[in-house]
Amino acid sequence: MSPFEWQVRVYYEDTDTGGVVYYANYLRFMERARTEYLRSLGFEQDRLIRDDDTLFAVRHVEIDYHAPARFNDMLSVSVEIAQLSRASMTFAQRVVRTNEQEDTLLCSANIKVACLTASTFSAQSIPDFILKEIEHVD
After folding, report:
1. What is the CATH number of the domain that holds 10?
2. How far apart are CA 13 and CA 11, in angstroms?
C-alpha cells in the first residue's frame, strides 16, 4: 500500500530568523499528518480518549534533516507504518517539498508511539478495533 499523504504550506510563523523552517516544526507537521492518518481510518483522538480511555504518545524519535523548507513552500508529509506491535507503532515519515520541476526530500523520521490508558498514562495494548482497521488498510 502507498503511504498516507498530507499537504501543508509553510507559513511565516513556521520559519526562523534565517528564513527556513525551524527544525522542531517538522515534528509538528509529522504529528498533524499522523493525526490525519488516524482520522482517515475513522479514529478521532479526542473520542478515543473520551470513549475508549486510549491515547497515543510519542516514545522515541529518530530524525534526519536533508534540505531546508522555506516560506510559502508546499510540503507533502507522508505516513507509513514501519512496525506494528501489540502496544506500539513505529511510523516512517517523510517531508517532501513538492513543485512542478521535482520533489525534494527535506526530512525523514522514524517515530515510535506507544498506546496508553488515558486516565493513568500506563501502557496498554492497542485496542483490537484499531489494530483490525490498521491491518486492513496496510
Report:
1. 3.10.129.10
2. 5
53-74 as b/e: b if 16+ CB within 10 A = ebbbeeeeeebeeeebbeeebe
**What is the set of active-site residues?**
16
Give residue-wise pLDDT tens across range 60-107.
999 999 999 999 999 999 999 999 999 999 999 999 999 878 899 999
53's CB contacts (< 8 A; 6+ apart) are 117, 118, 119
Q: Is 42 exposed, middle or buried, given 0-12, 13-18 or 19+ CB atoms closer than 10 A?
A: exposed
How far apart CA 43 and CA 129 sit, in angstroms, is 10
pTM over 0.85: yes
**Domain that includes residue 125, residue range:** 4-137
Domain tally for the chain? 1
